[in-house]
Amino acid sequence: MAATTPAGRVVAGTARGMRLVGPAEGVRPLGDRLKEGLFAILEPAIRDGRFLDLFAGSGAGGIEALSRGARHAMFVDRDARAVVAIRRNLETTRLAGPAATVEQADALEWLARTRVGQVADDAVLVDPPYDRPELLLAVLERVAAAGPPPSRGAILAERGTLVAKHPVRTELPAEIGLLRSARERRFGDSALTLYRWSTEEAG
User: Fold this and answer.
1) Which CATH architecture has domain 4-197?
2) Cα(168)–Cα(83) distance, rounded to whole angstroms?
3) What is the pLDDT of residues 103-122, one digit of tens each?
């Protein structure tokens, strides 16, 4: 079995308190305090909704969403070790099944595939390596280019929220196409920037 490292715990919901593991190297865990702040904002949107976890790492984001009542979570990571850790965490938390889909793929290539006929996601978490800010910008541009529903191939739902996790020192644009920065929260050296479609109220 591939080496693993502790990756925090599930904060709330059906799997509350269960410990997660991540790949031994190359993953910055989604800390418990940051998760609490993130899902305090997202929970109304994810309950019975769809969650997309890009650069998923340990899968902590998507697993927290499922634990809190998300209808489906998609986990995407290019690293085989991450995929092993995600599947192990889903089994440990008893959240494995049709509500959880894990795909080993490059996030940008995965987003570039045709999405016609697929349902847009209610919440999207984008958490690339901190030393690759260009990946975060590229995802934002791809989501913005796809547009909100009823655009063909929309990635983010009309009333959905995209959360970009990044170092505090990384400045992100206030607007990209119809995506608008609605809020930023800081947790130590990490920040969460929330984007929504400009047709929605910022808040």
Assistant:
1) 3-Layer(aba) Sandwich (3.40)
2) 27
3) 999 999 999 886 666 789 99
